[in-house]
Amino acid sequence: MGFKIGDIEFTERAVFLAPMEDVTDASFRYICKEFGADMMYTEFVSSDGLVHNAQKSFDKMQVYDYERPIGIQIYGHLPDAMVEAAKFAEEYKPDLIDINFGCPVNKIAKRGAGSGMMRYPEKMLEITRKVVEAVKLPVTVKTRLGWDENSLIITELAEQLQDCGIKALTIHGRTRCQMYKGSADWSLIGEVKRNPRIKIPIIGNGDIVDGSSAKRAFDDYGVDAIMVGRATYGHPWIFREIKYYLEHGEQMPPLTVKEKVELAKKHYAKSIEVKGDRRGMFEMRRHLSNYFKALPDFKETRMKLVTETDPVKVVETLNYVAQRWGDM
Length: 328
Hints:
Elements: E1 3-5, E2 8-10, E3 14-17, H1 26-34, E4 40-41, E5 45-46, H2 47-51, H3 55-59, E6 70-75, H4 79-91, E7 96-101, H5 106-109, H6 121-134, E8 139-144, H7 154-163, E9 169-172, H8 187-194, E10 202-205, H9 211-221, E11 225-228, H10 238-248, H11 257-275, H12 277-291, H13 299-307, H14 311-325
Helix pairs in contact: 1-11, 4-6, 9-10, 11-12, 11-14, 12-13
Protein backbone atom coordinates (compact mmCIF):
# COMPACT_ATOMS: atom_id res chain seq x y z
CA MET A 1 0.00 0.00 0.00
CA GLY A 2 1.12 3.51 -0.75
CA PHE A 3 0.52 6.59 1.38
CA LYS A 4 -0.48 10.23 1.03
CA ILE A 5 0.92 13.54 2.21
CA GLY A 6 -2.11 15.76 2.01
CA ASP A 7 -3.48 14.93 -1.44
CA ILE A 8 -0.10 13.85 -2.85
CA GLU A 9 -0.05 10.11 -3.48
CA PHE A 10 3.11 8.01 -3.16
CA THR A 11 3.85 4.40 -3.92
CA GLU A 12 4.95 1.97 -1.25
CA ARG A 13 8.62 2.27 -0.24
CA ALA A 14 9.10 5.73 -1.71
CA VAL A 15 12.58 7.24 -1.85
CA PHE A 16 12.98 10.99 -1.25
CA LEU A 17 15.86 13.37 -1.95
CA ALA A 18 16.84 15.29 1.19
CA PRO A 19 17.06 19.08 1.01
CA MET A 20 20.74 20.10 1.16
CA GLU A 21 22.26 23.54 1.00
CA ASP A 22 24.52 24.09 -2.04
CA VAL A 23 23.54 20.65 -3.39
CA THR A 24 19.84 20.27 -4.22
CA ASP A 25 19.60 23.10 -6.70
CA ALA A 26 17.41 22.85 -9.81
CA SER A 27 20.06 21.14 -11.97
CA PHE A 28 20.80 18.44 -9.40
CA ARG A 29 17.10 17.86 -8.79
CA TYR A 30 16.63 17.46 -12.55
CA ILE A 31 19.11 14.58 -12.58
CA CYS A 32 17.76 12.95 -9.41
CA LYS A 33 14.23 13.04 -10.84
CA GLU A 34 15.42 11.21 -13.94
CA PHE A 35 16.74 8.44 -11.70
CA GLY A 36 13.47 8.04 -9.85
CA ALA A 37 13.44 10.33 -6.80
CA ASP A 38 9.81 10.19 -5.63
CA MET A 39 9.89 13.51 -3.76
CA MET A 40 12.40 16.35 -3.80
CA TYR A 41 12.97 19.58 -1.92
CA THR A 42 14.68 22.87 -2.63
CA GLU A 43 17.78 23.95 -0.78
CA PHE A 44 16.67 25.42 2.53
CA VAL A 45 15.42 28.97 2.35
CA SER A 46 16.05 31.49 5.12
CA SER A 47 12.94 33.17 6.47
CA ASP A 48 15.08 36.16 7.44
CA GLY A 49 16.38 36.33 3.87
CA LEU A 50 12.84 36.41 2.48
CA VAL A 51 11.64 39.01 4.97
CA HIS A 52 14.64 41.19 4.13
CA ASN A 53 14.06 40.71 0.41
CA ALA A 54 17.30 38.83 -0.34
CA GLN A 55 17.15 37.84 -4.00
CA LYS A 56 19.21 34.66 -3.43
CA SER A 57 16.53 33.37 -1.05
CA PHE A 58 13.78 34.03 -3.57
CA ASP A 59 15.80 32.39 -6.37
CA LYS A 60 15.97 29.14 -4.38
CA MET A 61 12.17 28.85 -4.45
CA GLN A 62 11.90 28.55 -8.23
CA VAL A 63 10.43 25.13 -8.99
CA TYR A 64 9.47 23.44 -12.25
CA ASP A 65 6.53 21.25 -13.18
CA TYR A 66 8.73 18.30 -14.20
CA GLU A 67 10.05 18.16 -10.60
CA ARG A 68 6.70 17.49 -8.99
CA PRO A 69 6.00 16.60 -6.33
CA ILE A 70 8.41 19.10 -4.81
CA GLY A 71 8.56 20.94 -1.51
CA ILE A 72 10.09 24.27 -0.56
CA GLN A 73 11.93 24.01 2.74
CA ILE A 74 12.11 27.07 4.99
CA TYR A 75 14.01 27.69 8.23
CA GLY A 76 14.21 30.36 10.89
CA HIS A 77 13.70 31.05 14.60
CA LEU A 78 11.13 33.86 14.61
CA PRO A 79 7.46 32.79 14.36
CA ASP A 80 6.26 35.88 12.44
CA ALA A 81 9.14 35.66 9.95
CA MET A 82 8.43 31.97 9.40
CA VAL A 83 4.78 32.72 8.71
CA GLU A 84 5.78 35.36 6.15
CA ALA A 85 8.28 32.96 4.60
CA ALA A 86 5.63 30.26 4.26
CA LYS A 87 3.32 32.72 2.51
CA PHE A 88 6.09 33.73 0.12
CA ALA A 89 6.87 30.07 -0.55
CA GLU A 90 3.23 29.31 -1.28
CA GLU A 91 3.26 31.89 -4.08
CA TYR A 92 5.86 29.80 -5.90
CA LYS A 93 3.35 26.92 -6.06
CA PRO A 94 5.28 23.97 -4.61
CA ASP A 95 3.34 20.85 -3.63
CA LEU A 96 4.11 21.32 0.05
CA ILE A 97 6.08 23.45 2.49
CA ASP A 98 8.62 21.77 4.74
CA ILE A 99 9.96 23.31 7.95
CA ASN A 100 13.62 22.67 8.69
CA PHE A 101 14.09 21.81 12.36
CA GLY A 102 16.96 19.47 11.51
CA CYS A 103 19.97 21.32 10.10
CA PRO A 104 22.83 21.03 12.62
CA VAL A 105 25.37 23.50 11.20
CA ASN A 106 26.53 26.09 13.71
CA LYS A 107 25.55 29.25 11.85
CA ILE A 108 21.94 28.03 11.76
CA ALA A 109 21.56 25.98 14.96
CA LYS A 110 23.29 28.47 17.27
CA ARG A 111 20.77 31.12 16.26
CA GLY A 112 18.03 28.77 17.41
CA ALA A 113 16.98 27.79 13.88
CA GLY A 114 17.23 24.33 12.26
CA SER A 115 18.00 21.71 14.88
CA GLY A 116 18.77 24.52 17.33
CA MET A 117 15.02 24.54 17.83
CA MET A 118 15.31 21.17 19.60
CA ARG A 119 16.23 23.15 22.74
CA TYR A 120 13.00 25.15 22.48
CA PRO A 121 10.23 22.65 21.70
CA GLU A 122 7.45 25.04 22.72
CA LYS A 123 8.70 27.60 20.21
CA MET A 124 9.05 24.87 17.59
CA LEU A 125 5.41 23.94 18.12
CA GLU A 126 4.33 27.59 18.01
CA ILE A 127 6.09 28.12 14.67
CA THR A 128 4.64 24.90 13.25
CA ARG A 129 1.11 25.73 14.35
CA LYS A 130 1.27 29.26 12.93
CA VAL A 131 2.71 28.13 9.60
CA VAL A 132 0.05 25.42 9.22
CA GLU A 133 -2.66 28.01 9.89
CA ALA A 134 -1.14 30.55 7.48
CA VAL A 135 -1.05 28.48 4.28
CA LYS A 136 -3.34 26.18 2.32
CA LEU A 137 -0.60 23.79 1.20
CA PRO A 138 0.35 20.71 3.23
CA VAL A 139 3.04 21.50 5.81
CA THR A 140 5.64 18.91 6.81
CA VAL A 141 8.55 18.96 9.27
CA LYS A 142 12.09 17.57 9.19
CA THR A 143 13.83 17.21 12.54
CA ARG A 144 16.21 15.12 14.66
CA LEU A 145 15.97 12.89 17.73
CA GLY A 146 16.77 15.69 20.16
CA TRP A 147 19.47 18.21 21.06
CA ASP A 148 21.78 15.63 22.67
CA GLU A 149 21.68 12.15 24.20
CA ASN A 150 20.12 13.54 27.37
CA SER A 151 17.18 15.10 25.54
CA LEU A 152 15.81 12.51 23.14
CA ILE A 153 12.40 14.13 22.80
CA ILE A 154 11.30 12.87 19.40
CA THR A 155 8.70 10.31 20.58
CA GLU A 156 6.62 12.88 22.41
CA LEU A 157 7.50 15.68 19.99
CA ALA A 158 6.18 13.69 17.01
CA GLU A 159 2.72 13.53 18.57
CA GLN A 160 2.81 17.24 19.39
CA LEU A 161 3.84 18.17 15.86
CA GLN A 162 1.07 15.99 14.46
CA ASP A 163 -1.37 17.83 16.72
CA CYS A 164 -0.18 21.10 15.11
CA GLY A 165 -1.55 19.85 11.79
CA ILE A 166 1.51 18.71 9.86
CA LYS A 167 0.92 16.11 7.14
CA ALA A 168 4.21 14.14 7.43
CA LEU A 169 7.31 14.02 9.60
CA THR A 170 10.88 13.27 8.54
CA ILE A 171 13.23 12.17 11.32
CA HIS A 172 17.01 12.10 11.02
CA GLY A 173 18.30 9.43 13.39
CA ARG A 174 20.90 11.62 15.12
CA THR A 175 20.89 14.36 17.73
CA ARG A 176 21.99 17.87 16.89
CA CYS A 177 25.17 17.43 18.93
CA GLN A 178 26.10 14.38 16.85
CA MET A 179 26.08 16.51 13.70
CA TYR A 180 26.81 13.77 11.12
CA LYS A 181 29.15 11.73 13.32
CA GLY A 182 28.62 8.19 14.53
CA SER A 183 25.78 6.04 13.27
CA ALA A 184 22.18 7.07 12.88
CA ASP A 185 19.94 5.48 15.53
CA TRP A 186 16.84 4.22 13.80
CA SER A 187 15.31 2.61 16.90
CA LEU A 188 13.53 5.82 17.92
CA ILE A 189 12.36 6.40 14.35
CA GLY A 190 10.80 2.93 14.49
CA GLU A 191 9.26 3.73 17.88
CA VAL A 192 7.58 6.82 16.46
CA LYS A 193 6.29 4.86 13.47
CA ARG A 194 4.88 2.09 15.71
CA ASN A 195 3.11 4.56 18.00
CA PRO A 196 -0.62 3.88 17.43
CA ARG A 197 -1.37 7.57 17.99
CA ILE A 198 0.74 8.57 14.98
CA LYS A 199 -1.43 8.77 11.88
CA ILE A 200 0.82 10.80 9.54
CA PRO A 201 3.52 9.28 7.31
CA ILE A 202 6.96 8.92 8.90
CA ILE A 203 10.01 9.35 6.68
CA GLY A 204 13.32 7.96 7.94
CA ASN A 205 16.63 9.69 7.24
CA GLY A 206 20.25 8.95 8.13
CA ASP A 207 22.89 6.56 6.76
CA ILE A 208 20.87 5.38 3.76
CA VAL A 209 23.76 4.69 1.41
CA ASP A 210 22.66 1.79 -0.80
CA GLY A 211 19.94 -0.73 -1.51
CA SER A 212 20.60 -2.94 1.51
CA SER A 213 20.48 -0.05 4.02
CA ALA A 214 17.27 1.13 2.37
CA LYS A 215 15.70 -2.32 2.61
CA ARG A 216 16.69 -2.57 6.28
CA ALA A 217 15.04 0.78 7.00
CA PHE A 218 11.76 -0.38 5.49
CA ASP A 219 11.83 -3.93 6.83
CA ASP A 220 13.05 -3.26 10.36
CA TYR A 221 11.48 0.09 11.16
CA GLY A 222 8.37 0.21 8.99
CA VAL A 223 8.80 3.77 7.74
CA ASP A 224 6.58 4.98 4.93
CA ALA A 225 9.48 6.46 2.98
CA ILE A 226 13.20 6.98 3.27
CA MET A 227 15.14 10.15 2.57
CA VAL A 228 18.62 10.03 1.05
CA GLY A 229 21.03 12.90 1.63
CA ARG A 230 24.82 12.85 1.55
CA ALA A 231 24.99 9.55 -0.35
CA THR A 232 23.63 11.35 -3.41
CA TYR A 233 26.76 13.53 -3.76
CA GLY A 234 28.25 12.65 -7.14
CA HIS A 235 25.91 9.65 -7.16
CA PRO A 236 22.40 10.75 -8.19
CA TRP A 237 21.71 7.34 -9.73
CA ILE A 238 21.45 5.96 -6.19
CA PHE A 239 17.66 6.25 -6.48
CA ARG A 240 17.62 3.77 -9.34
CA GLU A 241 20.05 1.49 -7.46
CA ILE A 242 17.89 1.49 -4.34
CA LYS A 243 14.70 0.72 -6.25
CA TYR A 244 16.43 -2.02 -8.21
CA TYR A 245 17.63 -3.62 -4.98
CA LEU A 246 14.20 -3.36 -3.35
CA GLU A 247 12.64 -5.10 -6.35
CA HIS A 248 15.30 -7.70 -7.19
CA GLY A 249 17.22 -8.20 -3.94
CA GLU A 250 20.56 -7.63 -5.64
CA GLN A 251 22.71 -4.73 -6.72
CA MET A 252 22.20 -3.08 -10.09
CA PRO A 253 25.18 -3.29 -12.48
CA PRO A 254 27.33 -0.20 -11.85
CA LEU A 255 27.39 2.72 -14.27
CA THR A 256 30.37 2.78 -16.62
CA VAL A 257 32.70 5.78 -16.74
CA LYS A 258 31.29 6.66 -20.17
CA GLU A 259 27.77 6.66 -18.73
CA LYS A 260 28.92 8.87 -15.86
CA VAL A 261 30.53 11.29 -18.32
CA GLU A 262 27.32 11.60 -20.33
CA LEU A 263 25.41 12.16 -17.10
CA ALA A 264 27.89 14.79 -15.90
CA LYS A 265 27.58 16.61 -19.25
CA LYS A 266 23.79 16.60 -19.00
CA HIS A 267 23.96 17.88 -15.42
CA TYR A 268 26.47 20.55 -16.46
CA ALA A 269 24.31 21.72 -19.37
CA LYS A 270 21.29 21.97 -17.07
CA SER A 271 23.26 23.99 -14.52
CA ILE A 272 24.30 26.49 -17.21
CA GLU A 273 20.76 26.62 -18.59
CA VAL A 274 19.33 27.45 -15.17
CA LYS A 275 22.07 29.76 -13.82
CA GLY A 276 23.98 31.08 -16.82
CA ASP A 277 27.50 30.23 -17.99
CA ARG A 278 29.60 31.65 -15.17
CA ARG A 279 27.53 30.78 -12.12
CA GLY A 280 26.37 27.48 -13.60
CA MET A 281 29.98 26.44 -14.20
CA PHE A 282 31.26 27.44 -10.76
CA GLU A 283 28.39 25.79 -8.89
CA MET A 284 28.85 22.53 -10.83
CA ARG A 285 32.40 22.10 -9.56
CA ARG A 286 31.36 20.45 -6.32
CA HIS A 287 29.41 17.87 -8.32
CA LEU A 288 32.00 17.24 -11.04
CA SER A 289 34.68 16.51 -8.45
CA ASN A 290 32.45 13.78 -7.00
CA TYR A 291 31.25 12.04 -10.17
CA PHE A 292 34.57 10.26 -10.67
CA LYS A 293 35.74 9.71 -7.09
CA ALA A 294 37.14 6.20 -7.47
CA LEU A 295 39.17 6.61 -10.67
CA PRO A 296 42.90 5.87 -10.43
CA ASP A 297 45.45 8.57 -11.36
CA PHE A 298 42.68 11.13 -11.58
CA LYS A 299 44.10 13.95 -9.44
CA GLU A 300 45.38 16.11 -12.30
CA THR A 301 42.18 15.73 -14.32
CA ARG A 302 40.05 16.46 -11.26
CA MET A 303 41.99 19.70 -10.77
CA LYS A 304 41.17 20.68 -14.35
CA LEU A 305 37.48 19.99 -13.80
CA VAL A 306 37.32 22.18 -10.68
CA THR A 307 39.53 25.05 -11.85
CA GLU A 308 38.77 25.45 -15.57
CA THR A 309 37.01 28.74 -16.33
CA ASP A 310 36.02 28.06 -19.95
CA PRO A 311 32.75 26.07 -20.18
CA VAL A 312 33.81 24.56 -23.52
CA LYS A 313 37.06 23.26 -22.02
CA VAL A 314 35.16 21.69 -19.13
CA VAL A 315 33.21 19.62 -21.65
CA GLU A 316 36.46 18.78 -23.45
CA THR A 317 37.91 17.55 -20.16
CA LEU A 318 34.85 15.39 -19.58
CA ASN A 319 35.28 13.91 -23.06
CA TYR A 320 38.90 13.17 -22.16
CA VAL A 321 37.71 11.32 -19.06
CA ALA A 322 35.54 9.09 -21.26
CA GLN A 323 38.44 8.48 -23.62
CA ARG A 324 41.07 7.83 -20.93
CA TRP A 325 39.01 5.76 -18.44
CA GLY A 326 36.10 4.74 -20.66
CA ASP A 327 36.68 1.00 -20.42
CA MET A 328 36.17 1.02 -16.64
